[in-house]
Amino acid sequence: MARTLADLPWPVTTERLSLRAATILDVAAVFGYRRLPEVGQWLTRLPDDLDAWRVRFAERLPTTIMIEEDGDVIGDLYLRVQDGWAQHEVKEQAAGAEAEIGWSLDPRFAGHGYATEAARELLRICFDDLGLRRVFASCFAANEPSWRLMERLGMRREQYAVADSLHRDGRWLDGMTYALLADEWRAAR
Length: 189
Prior knowledge:
Blueprint: E1 12-13, E2 18-21, H1 27-34, H2 37-40, H3 50-60, E3 64-69, E4 72-82, E5 98-105, H4 114-129, E6 134-140, H5 144-152, E7 156-166, E8 172-181, H6 182-188
């Protein structure tokens, strides 16, 4: 069983999409849609300078998966494997047991089910290929398309936090976290 993204056989295909590990050659394409206001307003870091973004993107390569349709980049996925919380005596059993996931899609391709298709495949990668036991994702509560996607994926809302997330516009916004266990995912298939 694969333990990291680098261990996976790329590309992975779905009905309409191809997923592959990101390379530094993807920097301009990703910058193109992530800097758009409708996308950037929800991102942790707004890419506003291509040279600075190139450095940041290079750091993100081990956790970034590209979404392509007919060879064109239409979005990206985030996957960071981490240890689950555990008491000291059993912490080895929680090593690499869960992942945080996320997504960003070029708005020109929104509304066609591409994000759902890509994120479903990301869950399959997490549970089948990487053998993870739990996956979670977080977003601003105001980012309705993102939490609706989490719900379409069968993820359960585990947290609704009031004014816990400081937005770059200076407002404290509510945040949400959704999660899914491998057993839940398999039962829903």
